[in-house]
Amino acid sequence: MVTDAQLLEAIRERRAGAFDAFVERYGKRLLAFGLRMCGHREDAEDVFQETLLKAYAAAASLRDPGALRTWLYRVAANQCLMKRRSEKNSARELSLDALKPSGWEDGLAGEIPDWSALPDDEAQRAELRAELERAIGALPPEHRAVVLLRDVEGLSTRETADVLGLGVPAVKMRLHRARMHLRERLAAYREGRTPRGGEAG
To answer: Domain 101-190 adopts which CATH fold?
Structure first.
């Protein structure tokens, strides 16, 4: 398997197949992240293409292969946030088709009340996942980005801070607020009541 160091070397030397190898390794992850972050497939595909082209063009200057993944998410997150700001007056429904239930379970299980006590009924689990997806979609973009990077993509707090250009304390604060909002939303859903407020502040 080609390492990131070998991939970067191939990109710098513009070897045949380097771009295809780059897309094969990171394309699906970046597209899925863009869909979760942007909430709309058309926007996500635009962000995906822009990210790939910008990243591939600039990758030759990246000296630390270990920073490649973090750097790619930074490019993608910035593209998503810029697109969101440019279309802030155009409300759209969150698209859910690229979300990974296993990602939510692995990353947020400890943040969801009584998750382990859920019945084995897959339909009920699917309903809870759908509600969690809606709750994440309702987060402000800056909070959503932190949750996606930390709890779905599995980046560390430091890596998430680097991606978003924030300090570690700011990432922890945003993550805490986002998780509090998600806990309340899911608790309200399970109790059959309407959550207070709309987006998390």
So the answer is: Arc Repressor Mutant, subunit A (1.10.10)
